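Final report, Chapter 2: Outcomes

The project's central promise was a pipeline that accepts a single protein chain and returns its three-dimensional structure in a standardized token representation, suitable for archiving and comparison. That pipeline is now operational. To close this chapter, we reproduce one record exactly as it appears in the project archive, with the input sequence first and the structure output second.
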Amino acid sequence: MRLPLPATALAAALLTATSAFAAPSYGPELEGFEYPYPVRRHAFASQGQDLSMAYMEVTPERPNGRTVVLLHGKNFCAATWGDTAAVLAREGYRVLALDQVGFCKSTKPLGYQFSFNQLAANTHGLLAALGIGRATIVGHSMGGMLAARYALMFPDSTEQLVMVDPLGLEDWQAKGVPYQTIDAAYAAERKTSAAGIKAYQMKFYYNGEWKPAYDRWVDMQAGLYAGPGAERVAWNQAQTSDMVFTQPVVHEFDRLRVPTVLMVGTKDRTAPGGNRAAPEVAQTLGRYDRLGPEVAARIKGARLVMFEGLGHSPQVEAPDRFYAALLKELAAR
């Protein structure tokens, strides 16, 4: 992996990032962390349990008749989409930003079989309860994998699919990344700290560079691990890590039949489990500059947007560039 910083400078930066970075403490459903819009809840039964999905809804002053659903990544929450939702609403879109079961302000179930199919069904149930028959589905990171699964399961309900630096553009296990049991993943999750989150994101998401604005999102994630629901949070995160690793969507992109936009940062190097792979394998993983064009070519009629010089989270790293590109693609539809 090539980074713009010399090895010594990067090491120093990571050392700074991992020193004395204290995390706040939030409740198991992210109590104490403020969202930019009022949080509503969708109660439903699934797998023999009573669950609740948290979501924000932003309504425009001058509706254009379209709805956009925003799906968060594994290390993010609906709150991360707050500014994006505001921009979309100003353009007339009705916007929903969801927290999936097992994440953020939604229920953390003890015994739950996580799958992208199940999360897509949960999402569809919420939209149905709100009377939304068709929507544009925008997913980032893990949310991009979920958005693709949603479009495959519910094509008639998907007006447009937008995947932003989605995971699952490659099959890590097939490329040689060893499997990790959920128990092993849980043990690793229990060691999660704010410093570790910041160091990981700086290295893989932001190409070795950090801005103070990113700290809020580190606090959001780390606060769950530092709070009273830490064990349940870590268990759900281990389960969903297994879901991401064992349920790649890359093999099914050819089946997509909805208008699709793929947006990727050329500096994104995210590859879950890559740290378990042999060095010669690890260096080939997460090359979004290559994966983007390869995958877009497999999706009939797909439009590809490449963010030159950006990493895994363009909506966080360069929001103005991201908003302009997103609005252009939505309008093109």
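Archive annotation: Residues 1-20 have pLDDT under 50 and may be disordered.
This record, like all others produced under the grant, will remain available to the consortium after the project formally closes.
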